[in-house]
Amino acid sequence: MGQDGLTTGDAVRAALAIDRSSTARARTVDITTTGARTGRPRRIEIWFYRHEGTVYLSGLPGRRDWYANLLAQPEFTFHLKHGVRADLPARAVPVTDPARRLAAFTEFTEDMNQPHDPARIGRRTSRWGSGWRAVR
Question: In terms of CB atoms within 10 Å, which of 64, 76, 108, 133 comes out highest?
Fold first, then answer.
């Protein structure tokens, strides 16, 4: 048990249980991918989202190295760093089904467009289109 009375597993579950009230800090994680061309570890900071109990990573439209890396080597490390520090082994699955992508991105957009702006984005997002990349 930790000082807060939570086991490591409980603390990890709590850190992953973000919702519409979660802050940008709570959503921020690092991921370590394997370089598609180099084979070297690549660590970046990224936000994660939840939809129907599944964790998603997403980024702006356009080419993203982290996405190319995950397509080439789907195993990666998901690094929690707020509330609990944990390095979680993960496997990326590209979201290619248009209906699933639309449902998830619609929820993410509604979450980020709340009037009280819990993630402190400071801008409003429009509906995310087919150019957006996501893995679950």
Answer: 76
